[in-house]
C-alpha cells in the first residue's frame, strides 16, 4: 500500500469504505511495525481529544476509559472512540487487543489535563487570600479584564489583571508581590501517582504595560502538594503555612518581565507528586523587584496573566548510577 496515511485518516474520520477497510487490514497483517504505527496514530489522536475536551468530572467518572468519556468532535475527527470502534469490528482483533491493553495500563508519557484556564468564564477571582475550597481563583486583589493599554489577551478576550499586594481584610503596605491561588482536587487521578511515578506541570503566560527603566518586575509559578488536612481550614491563609505544611512544593525560576506589551512571556514549573497527595495549590505571582525606596512596590495594575494550564503525566525518575 503506497499511502497508508490516507487510510489511517479515513479510519479516524469514521469514513472507511469496505475496500479501504480491507486494504487497511491487509497492511496491518503484513508487518508488526505497521500495526505499531497505526496504534500510535490512534492513541495520539485520542490523547489530544481527551485532554482538550473531556472535563475533569468526565475523566474521573470514566476512570480514564475513553470509551466512557463522551467527547465533542474536533474539526475533521468525527464522533470517534477507539475502543468502541474496535469492538464493532472495524479493524483486526489483534489491533483491538493492543489498543485495549494500552489504555488499561498507566503509561509513561500519557498527558492528562487537570486545568485549562483563559479566564473567559467562571466567577471573578475572590480577593480573600488563599482559598480553602477548590474550583475558584482567590488571593490578593485582582480582576478579569479585556484588552488594556495595548495589552491584548493571549487567548480569547479576557485575562487576569494583578492589582495589589494585599487582600480584603489584610493591608500589607510592605508587600512587593501580588499572588492568586487555586486549589485543585486530584483525588480522582490517584492511580496515576500513587506509586510516586507522576509529575505535574503548571504553565502560564505573563505580560505588562510599558514601565519605567528604574522599575523591575518578575513572574513566578508555585505548586504545593497537599493532603486533605489543610482543605477547608483557615490556617492555610497564614504566612508560610503552605510551604511548611505541604507534602512537597516547587517554585519556578523568576522570569523577568520585558517592556513590550506585544509579547507574552511563558513561565513553567514542575513537581513530582508524593503518593499521599490529595490536592494541589497553584500560585501565580507577580513580584515588584524595584530597588528604589521612592517607588511603591505593592501596586500591580499594569500586569497580567493568561492561559494557565495544569497537566499530569507519568515520568520515570532519573536513574542514579
How is the main sheet built? 6 strands, antiparallel
Proportion of beta-strand residues: 25-35%
List the total number of helices.
8
CATH class bucket of the largest domain: Mainly Beta
Radius of gyration: 23 Å
Q: What does this protein look like?
A:
The protein has eight helices and twelve strands. The protein has two domains: 4-105, no CATH class; 112-314, Jelly Rolls (Sandwich). The radius of gyration is 23 Å and the shape is globular. The protein is α+β, with helices and mostly antiparallel strands. Helix 1 packs across helix 2 (18-30) and helix 3 crosses helix 6. The strands form two sheets. Strands 1, 3, 4, 6, 10 and 12 form a six-stranded antiparallel beta sheet that branches. Strands 2, 5, 7, 8, 9 and 11 form a six-stranded antiparallel beta sheet that branches. 25% of the residues lie in helices and 28% in strands. The chain has helices spanning 4-13, 18-30, 32-53, 56-62, 82-87, 93-104, 190-193, 241-245, and strands at residues 111-117, 138-139, 142-145, 159-164, 177-185, 198-208, 217-226, 248-251, 255-256, 265-272, 279-288, 299-314. The longest helix has 22 residues, at 32-53.
Amino acid at each position: 500500500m503506497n499511502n497508508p496515511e490516507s487510510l489511517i485518516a479515513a479510519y479516524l474520520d469514521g469514513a472507511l469504505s469496505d475496500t479501504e477497510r480491507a486494504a487497511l487490514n491487509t497492511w496491518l497483517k503484513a508487518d508488526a511495525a505497521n500495526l505499531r504505527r497505526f496504534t500510535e496514530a490512534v492513541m495520539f489522536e485520542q490523547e489530544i481529544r481527551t485532554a482538550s475536551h473531556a472535563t475533569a468530572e468526565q475523566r474521573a467518572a470514566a476512570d480514564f476509559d475513553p470509551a466512557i468519556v463522551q467527547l465533542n468532535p474536533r474539526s475533521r475527527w468525527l464522533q470517534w472512540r477507539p475502543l468502541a470502534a474496535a469492538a464493532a469490528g472495524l479493524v483486526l482483533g489483534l489491533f483491538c487487543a493492543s489498543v485495549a491493553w494500552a489504555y488499561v495500563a498507566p503509561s509513561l508519557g500519557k498527558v492528562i489535563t487537570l486545568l485549562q484556564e483563559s479566564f473567559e468564564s467562571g466567577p471573578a477571582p475572590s480577593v480573600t487570600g488563599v482559598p480553602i475550597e477548590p474550583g475558584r481563583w482567590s488571593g490578593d486583589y485582582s480582576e478579569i479584564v479585556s484588552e488594556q493599554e495595548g495589552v491584548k489577551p493571549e487567548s480569547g478576550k479576557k485575562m487576569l489583571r494583578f492589582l495589589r499586594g494585599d487582600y480584603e481584610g489584610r493591608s500589607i503596605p510592605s508587600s512587593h508581590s501580588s499572588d492568586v491561588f487555586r486549589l485543585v482536587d486530584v483525588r480522582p487521578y490517584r492511580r496515576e501517582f500513587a506509586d510516586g511515578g507522576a509529575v505535574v506541570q503548571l504553565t502560564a503566560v505573563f505580560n505588562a504595560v510599558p514601565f519605567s527603566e528604574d522599575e523591575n518586575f518578575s513572574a513566578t509559578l508555585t505548586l504545593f502538594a497537599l493532603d486533605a488536612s489543610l482543605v477547608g481550614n483557615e490556617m492555610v491563609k497564614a504566612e508560610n503555612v503552605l510551604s511548611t505544611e505541604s507534602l512537597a512544593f516547587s517554585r519556578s525560576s523568576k522570569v523577568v518581565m520585558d517592556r513590550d506589551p506585544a509579547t507574552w512571556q511563558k513561565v513553567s514549573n514542575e513537581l513530582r507528586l508524593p503518593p499521599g497527595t490529595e490536592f494541589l495549590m497553584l500560585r501565580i505571582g507577580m513580584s515588584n523587584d524595584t530597588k528604589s525606596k521612592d517607588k511603591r512596590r505593592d501596586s500591580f495594575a499594569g500586569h497580567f496573566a493568561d492561559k494557565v494550564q495544569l497537566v499530569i503525566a507519568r515520568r520515570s525518575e532519573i536513574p542514579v548510577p
